[in-house]
Amino acid sequence: MGPSVEVTWARVEPPTVAELLSRMERDGVVQREPNPANALGGLMSLTRTARQR
User: Fold this and answer.
1) Distance between CA atoms of 35 and 47, rounded to whole angstroms?
2) What is the Cα–Cα distance from 8 to 31, expressed in whole angstroms?
């Protein structure tokens, strides 16, 4: 699920989701990877540490 889907579902503004994901990345909860299908987008996934919690 990408941020655009989350924004629609949660009814929040895109900058709010972007800030939340940045904080989660900073705290080691998610990791960002390039999206091979879309050079402008990225893929977010839980880190191994976050999955073990």
Assistant:
1) 17
2) 22
> What sign has the CA pseudo-torsion 46, 17, 15, 1?
positive
Low-confidence ranges of the chain (pLDDT < 70): 1-7
Cα-based distances in Å from 39 to 8, 26, 50 = 22, 22, 26
Q: In this predicted structure, what is the pLDDT of residue 40?
A: 84
pLDDT at position 7 is 64
Q: Which two tokens stand for residue 53?
A: 């919690």
The first and second tokens of residue 37, run together, are 């299908």
Q: pTM for the complete prediction?
A: 0.72
